[in-house]
Amino acid sequence: MPKDYSRTQRVADQIQRELAVLIETEVKDPRVGRITITGVEVTRDYSHAKIYYTSLGNKEDRVAIEEGLQHASGFLRSQLSSRIRLRVIPQLHFIYDESVERGLYLSQLIDKATGKI
């Protein structure tokens, strides 16, 4: 295994895969709806994980989704503990990923500048 792909990164990737399945199949909260997990960052001691997500919808939808995810974080953490073999299951912190929107906005600006629109 190469040095640049650390255990922390492998754990983050596993958490991302498992959370995507759990949110899609197990979370019954209608506020969560359809989201895409774009990335996970785990601290070196595995005590905290930042979960980056994106969704379709407006600002009010994002607020409701974030509240739903925070409400479901305990359930998701307990489900992760049965799926991932770690001594410590990290606290989950959900953060909206604005990079997709920013990329779309920049793409539109480039199209306007080149006259494609």
From TrEMBL:
Q: Which GO terms describe its biological process?
A: maturation of SSU-rRNA
Report the main location listed first in the record: cytoplasm
Pfam families with a match to the protein in the record: RBFA
- Places the protein is found: Cytoplasm
The record's keywords, sorted A to Z, are: Cytoplasm, Ribosome biogenesis
InterPro entries reported for this sequence: KH_dom-like_a/b, RbfA, RbfA_dom_sf, Ribosome-bd_factorA_CS
- MF term (GO), any: ribosomal small subunit binding
> Any one cellular component term from GO for this entry?
cytosol
What family does the database annotate?
A: Belongs to the RbfA family.
Quaternary structure?
Answer: Monomer. Binds 30S ribosomal subunits, but not 50S ribosomal subunits or 70S ribosomes.
The cross-references to HAMAP family, in alphabetical order and at most eight, read: RbfA (MF_00003)
| PANTHER family in UniProt | RIBOSOME-BINDING FACTOR A, CHLOROPLASTIC-RELATED
Q: What does this protein do?
A: One of several proteins that assist in the late maturation steps of the functional core of the 30S ribosomal subunit. Associates with free 30S ribosomal subunits (but not with 30S subunits that are part of 70S ribosomes or polysomes). Required for efficient processing of 16S rRNA. May interact with the 5'-terminal helix region of 16S rRNA.
Record-given protein name: Ribosome-binding factor A
The organism named in the record is: Nitrosomonas communis
